[in-house]
Design a protein that fits this description.
Its cofactor is [2Fe-2S] cluster. This protein is of the alpha+beta class. The chain contains 9 helices and 7 strands, in the order H-H-H-H-H-E-H-E-E-E-E-H-H-H-E-E. The structure holds FE2/S2 (inorganic) cluster.
């Protein structure tokens, strides 16, 4: 089988791939979004997906492999409809991340980086997402789920498996892994509530700012300073 036959299922991405490549002065710079585009079709980056990126960008398959295996957002095995990440880095771990991960492993009957038999959920422990002020945090297809508990985590995965519409705690509706990958490739985010350009800082971040300044946060949201 030739290289091109191996990735025949990806040829439908040719127009989108060309658009991505046209955004960069050097084609090699398009590799990261192109890998996301491949994941939007395959649900992971297969050997054929690596060939596809290499051919589109004039790179060797070794170069594409090196990048796709370095970054943890690129997957080597098919991911379920929902990639469920649980932060088990230090702060989240001690505030409940380890308990959430253990609970979900039992509840779903899968280990780390494994997918449920129905193909709906892939569970993975993830490193710090720079959202420690909302610890313990989870992600679903990279959208944040803040201030989680084992009970909330079980409810979340049950709703996702049941096909219910679920909102991330920061607004946007959760979409499938493949849909999220297309957005990460640089195409329009059609979801209601998706934030363009970032929103305002949340209550936990503002409370942390006050503490870092030696001030005492008060109030239900912790965003106002105690009067002297
Ligand atoms: S330790 Fe979990 S977001 Fe930083």
């Amino acid at each position: 089988m030739t290289d091109q036959e191996a990735y025949a299922h990806l040829r439908k991405l040719d127009a989108d791939a060309a658009e991505i490549v046209s955004r960069y002065p050097q084609s090699g710079s398009a590799l990261l979004p192109l890998l996301h585009l491949v994941q939007s079709e395959e649900g992971y980056v297969s050997p054929a997906g690596i060939e596809y990126c290499a051919d589109k960008l004039g790179l060797s398959t070794a170069e594409v492999s090196a990048v796709s295996t370095f970054y943890t957002m690129y997957k080597r095995r098919p991911v379920g409809d929902y990639h469920v990440g649980v932060c088990t880095n230090t702060l989240c771990a001690v505030l409940g991340g380890d308990a959430i991960f253990a609970t979900l492993k039992d509840h779903l009957g899968v280990g780390n980086d494994e997918t449920t038999e129905d193909g709906r959920l892939t569970l993975e422990h993830i490193e710090c997402n720079a959202a420690c002020d909302y610890a313990p945090v989870m992600t679903v297809n990279w959208e944040f789920m803040d201030d989680m508990t084992p009970d909330k985590a079980v409810r979340l995965v049950d709703e996702l498996r049941a096909g219910k519409d679920v909102l991330s705690t920061r607004g946007p509706a959760l979409c499938t892994f493949k849909q999220a990958e297309r957005i990460l490739a640089g195409f329009e985010d059609p979801r209601e509530g998706a934030v363009a350009g970032g929103g305002a800082a949340g209550h936990a971040s503002l409370a942390g700012l006050l503490v870092s300044q030696g001030r005492t946060p008060t109030g239900p949201a912790g965003t106002t300073e105690a009067s002297e």
